Amino acid sequence: MREIFVLIEHRQGQIRDITFEMLSKGRELIEKTGTELTAILFGKDVKHHAGAFAEYAKQVLVVEDAKLENYNSDAYRVVLSNLIKERKPMLTLIGHTSYGVDIAPSLAASLNMPLATDCIELDYSNDTLTVTRQRYGGKVNEEAALKKAESYIVTIRQATFPIQKKPSVNGQVIEVPSPLVEEIATKRFIEYVPPPVGGVDIASAEILVGVGRGIKDVCNIPLVENLAKALGGTLACSRPIVDKGWLPSDRQVGSSGKTVKPKLYLALGISGSFQHVLGMKSSGLIISVNKDPNAPIFSVADYGVVDDLFKIVPSLKNKIYDLKGLKT
Questions:
Q1: Per the domain annotation, does 195 fall within a domain?
Q2: At 142, which CATH number?
Q3: Which of 92, 222, 241, 253 is a plausible cystine mate for 237, CB 3.0–4.6 Å?
Q4: How many domains does the chain have?
Q5: Rounded CA gap, 90 and 129, in Å?
């Protein structure tokens, strides 16, 4: 039976969410295509992670090699291309991340395979693979059909597909010998440089409080920041706040910032331009506060409050403090 490959992405021993997003989408696709889902795990001493992927995939192929301890696109390409040539999967899914945009084009070129990048949807019917991508900064969705081929490579945008917990597949973990014989001379790992001290990874936050133009002045930022702390969340913002220099760029949500999918996204004074919505529409619960009843943000919000944030925020913060038994 033919397969759909999902390349597992991990960094510094941590599995990236994009992996489980692709595995979840992969389980949908195999029902339509009559294929099997296979997870591909590269690295050094990574076999202990395989069980988590065996819940989703029929097989987990583990290639362990000291040369794969740190990501190297040249090394990954050699190993992955060997597996694709040998097993001939119908489709290989790779995250549209710093890893994916590095390896996918060269992998597709070396194997002479069709490649579609930064996809937000894909489907397979009538022997045709179709993908959906966004054009013109998210203003237009483009649906494209890939030319018919034995195998395809697609990169998936982060935070596009929900992680779905289904009954475990109890897949088989298979160790595959590494084809790497010599060291990769053209490219080598030097060091991992973490974000600067004080940097914030809003993409991993479960609760985000986003602030936009409605905050009016930089002196009002602490008001929203205190609410975020009361909620146990993280402060984020729309692009105008970064452009004004009121918050650093690592706080920006949107197509030119970060794509996020917290359990709760509270949008305060954010009008909801398509660039911003593009980065947060996959949030679990979206609550918006805006004085303008016609603000675009309300079209994606689960709950909306048409009012002045300067009335809502202090009352909400005080209520949270009361519920937690804290002093304001």
A1: no
A2: 3.40.50.620
A3: 241
A4: 2
A5: 10
